[in-house]
Amino acid sequence: MKIACTTLACPRWSLEQILKELSASGYDGIDFRGLGDEMEVWKLPAFTTDAEATAGKIAAAGLTVSGFSSSARMFNADADKRAKGYAEVAEYAALCRRFGAPMIRVFGGSLGGVELDRAIDVAAETLTEMAEIAGEGVTVAVETHDDWTASAPLAAVLAKVDRPNVGALWDLHHPYRMEGESPQQTYDNIGRYTVAAHLKDSRLTGKGEHDHEYVLGGEGDVPLGEMVKLLAAGGYDGMITLEWEKKWHPELAGPEVALPAHAKYMRELIAQAQ
């Protein structure tokens, strides 16, 4: 297994600084979830007219693009919004081919009052279309997020789709913290589909059943070590990607602290798992 980081960790850094610091901290990959103030990176010159130069900078830093994290959703009851999601997947699929990235992340999406059985059918149809758009060699990975944080419903969708370029992105935090799933329970449901993993740690605040605060890896109580061991035992050899959401949670430690601390922590987890 290797380690990567999403660009959410460093919203105020330039691309050059991000690459420099990821390389210095020992990361293997970078996952683009926006850059600066622009979340749709395909609109930026760095990914259009200057794409060749950007690819060269990434390679020179010793990094690969591990994925592009989209805002598209696997389930949406609104046909127009589904169409917008398809268009976004198409944009990122083109970037994946340009930068040699294997994966596009999509969210699960909100049910919006739709019954789960119906939502599973619609989600499977949507995900099948996304897989067609992405094409061979680009995997559409659905994150355990939104109303699909529980792993069993997501597994039901993935079983219906059964496409080689569709899989699960196991956010190691959410099913445990938000749904009370044990690592083994989540792995039993989606382990065979897992093509990517997000890592973050937290601890409960005591203000509500699921109310939590994010902390540096190892300072919380999410059993991340157990999760990484399950992945290793199952033959997972992809990226463990730090999702340090400084972009959305400005109170979090800055990237100058979080990046090296998590790189060391994730390397230790991987070493202990193997």
Features:
Xyl_isomerase-like_TIM-brl; 10 strands; IolE/XylAMocC-like; TIM Barrel; alpha/beta; Xyl_isomerase-like_sf; Xylose isomerase-like TIM barrel domain-containing protein
Helix content: 40-55%
Strand order of the largest sheet: 1-2-3-4-5-6-7-10
The low-confidence parts are none
Q: Rounded to an integer, what's the Rg over CA atoms?
A: 18 Å
β content, as a range? 15-25%
Task: Give a short account of the largest sheet.
Answer: 8 strands, parallel, barrel
Count of beta strands: 10
Examine the coordinates and then state which fold CATH places here, giving the name of the CATH topology. Answer: TIM Barrel
Provide the CATH superfamily: Divalent-metal-dependent TIM barrel enzymes
Separation of the first and last Cα atoms: 9 Å
H-E string: EHEHEHEHEHEHHEEEHEH
CATH class category? Alpha Beta
SS content category: alpha/beta
Number of helices: 9
Q: Can you tell me the overall shape?
A: globular
